[in-house]
Design a protein that fits this description.
five-stranded antiparallel sheet, 4 helices, Beta-Lactamase, alpha+beta
């Protein structure tokens, strides 16, 4: 997977959903999201009916991008874990393998320590799943089964010309 290309296969998607459900249960979290770095929701588990998932995914990606800027100013490559504490809910955000963002929302029924422990284990499993996806993509590209994105050849200049 290069850049922002994310190819998802049904088998791996089901594994991701299963891992998110497991993490939600084991961390006693309200909801767990998996978001790509462009802000697109990949999968979720838990109590999502009262949450604007599209906005949450987008804002989370923006949060990671902004924090990345802060990290570079401080001489760090990136901060891979963020935590925000609220009056009722808390949010734990972690970057997985420079590819996707794992978001865990929890309340008083859980603790930061438990969430961090469970996220660490889930991160290993999710990284393995995304490694499997990358291998499949490379194999299919090598066999000519997977076409490059139709948007890959569009340049910024093409977009500028379109809106002139």
């Amino acid at each position: 997977m290069t850049g922002s290309d994310l190819v998802m296969y049904e088998e791996e998607f089901l594994k991701i959903e299963e891992e998110l459900q497991k993490l939600r249960r084991q961390a006693n979290a309200k909801v767990v999201f998996l978001v790509d770095k462009n802000g697109q929701l990949i999968a979720s588990a838990g109590e999502t009916r009262d949450i604007d998932t599209t906005s949450l995914a987008s804002l989370t990606a923006g949060n990671i991008a902004a924090t990345g800027g802060i990290a570079r100013l401080l001489g760090e490559r990136e901060f891979t874990i963020l935590f925000h504490e609220g009056e009722k809910d808390n949010i734990h955000i972690s970057l997985i393998g420079q590819r996707v963002i794992l978001v865990v929302i929890f309340d008083h029924r859980s603790s930061l320590g438990l969430v961090r422990l469970r996220v660490k284990k889930a991160t290993e499993s999710l990284s393995n799943i995304f490694d499997d996806i990358s291998r499949k993509v490379e194999k299919e590209r090598g066999e000519g089964k997977l076409e490059e994105s139709i948007f890959a050849e569009i340049t910024d200049e093409d977009i500028d010309n379109l809106f002139r």
